[in-house]
Fold:
Amino acid sequence: MKLAEFSARLALGMGHATQKVFGLAFMCRVTRLLDSASHRFVDEAFWQWCAEMPFPRRGALPARSSNDAEAVYFPACISRIMGALPGEPQKPSVMQTLLNIAGRAGVRLCVPRDVQGKCCGVPFSSKGFEAAHQIAINRTIENFFRWSDGGRLPILVDTSPCTYGLKTARPYLSPENQVKFEALTILDSVEFLHDRILPDFLIRRKIHSVTLHPVCSVVKMAITPKLVAIAEACSETALVPRDAGCCAFAGDRGFLFPELTASASRAEAAQATAEEHDGYFSSSRTCEIGMTRATGKIYRSYLHLLEYASRPD
Structure:
């Protein structure tokens, strides 16, 4: 997985470098041709380049000591790989943004130094690679148990589909790791920030209106009201479109079959763009890519909204 993370970041960087020289149309055409060619030899599709393809994550991973930590922060592999979307500010990253928020609230987080290569297994389970999923999730739960001091500290995850995959991982674990799993407290950043930080948090400014896209896993974990509450604390108006639902990006399906995402998100996109808003937010990078493509508006992590609202300058 360490190699996979490095390779994905390298591919994104090379893709954007090629686009800069030859243009977006060239990249889209080449990847469509590669996709067509791949079907002749293997039963697998090839990612199609798009205008919303994120830049690679830049800079070193943040590492924080475990001394006196109140929680362990597990940056999902997608946060470790993907950076800003085109047109989105490059800094701060999602990881640094969450750490900034926690720091302002006086909450001490630990970021494990050996977090690279650890994965929730969802990229494998979503494709039906059950053996790979079991290997990945068992390794991660073992590390969660170690990082959390045997379950003493809660585990905080910044990407909602990854949180859901981790919370529902028990059936795929070995008997030994099932015991470890029972000792763990795994929290999505939405619920951690809402419950632990928001009540006494200093909001310095509000923006006028925001639109939210609660991803499928947020709905399944029943934490949509908490996401809305965070947005309402940082804005005058927070809208969840009436037809908000699955954007159908489904991991990487949106890169492989863009028409799937276009169809699934059409009604929500029409409502989200019926009038102009000051910000568009969600809690999963790939879903944010899908909604950006559908609406023409840049969807960002809701963490950026809370960070901006609490920024001292």
